[in-house]
Amino acid sequence: MKKLMAANWKMFKTWDEAVITARKLAELVGTVPDDREVLIFPSFTSLKGVSKELASKSSFSTGGQDFYTEEQGAFTGEISPKMLKSCGAVFGLTGHSERRHVLGETDEFIGKKTAYGIEAGLKVVLCVGELIEERKAGKVEEVVDRQIREGLKDVPRDIDPERISVAYEPVWAIGTGEVAGPEEIVEAHGFCRKILQDIFGEKANEIRILYGGSVKPDNCSQIISLDNVDGVLVGGASLEGESFSKIVLA
Ligand code: PEP
Q: What is the CB-side half-sphere exposure of residue 80 using CA atoms within 13 A?
């Protein structure tokens, strides 16, 4: 299973800035190591530009940071998986903590999106993770269990495991510089694996579980070597080619 090294550019970068960053990243990375795959989630407006820039580079792909649960229609401001794919996207992201906690998305809606994204032909990365209050209250497993089960509720059980990934991102570690410790990561990822096994049986061992939350060039190689860590999802440190290329090659 290749490690998935994913960049979430959130609401940063104009078209030009995004294309220049993608170009620089590809130059600095050069040949992606055999056991790695690089994925960029740019903003919608720069998705096509970044996809085109990376099209000839092997082991690079792009994805949409969000999508709606219909192919087309009167849904002002929304975007469909079909539209993302027409801009070169292979992946879609669901359940990111900013969509859950800033934009108020529910587990139910995230589950619908995840299933629809899969049905519409995307590979989907479902993000899960607890708030600091939930961790302090000893509710990590309860929260992660609910978010994974609800998020994957309508995903066909016979799915190709390559098409679905889970990103464990403790909310208190996102954008704060406060990375989860190795024991916390191993414990949470082991727990995610167990839930996935319960849902999908043996093939759950081939579903990638990414870690996200203040991953940086200097902590990535340790994180990526931990049990059940099959990649990373990186926000802040993915915005510059220099730092993200170091993460990709860590
Ligand atoms: C994220 O946005 O998913 C994330 C993990 O951000 P950061 O790396 O900045 O913590």
A: 14
Phi/psi at 164 (5° precision): -135, 135
235 lines ligand 1 (CB under 6 A): yes
Express each pLDDT in 92-119 by its tens digit: 999 999 999 999 999 999 999 999 999 9
Q: Are 161 and 204 in contact (CB under 8 A)?
A: yes
Reply yes or no on whether 96 is catalytic. Answer: yes
Distance (angstroms) between ligand 1 centre and the Cα of 8 equals 7
Give the mean pLDDT of the chain. 97
Structure tokens at 45: 């407006």
Domains observed in the chain: 3-248 (3.20.20.70)
Q: Is any ligand 1 atom within 6 A of the Cβ of residue 129?
A: no
What are the residues whose beta carbons fall under 8 Å from the beta carbon of 193, sequence distance 6 or more? 204, 205, 209, 228
Entry pTM: 0.97
* Cα 199 to middle of ligand 1, angstroms: 27
Q: Is 30 exposed, middle or buried (0-12, 13-18, 19+ CB in 10 A)?
A: exposed
Q: Which numbered atom of ligand 1 lies nearest the CA of 176?
A: 10
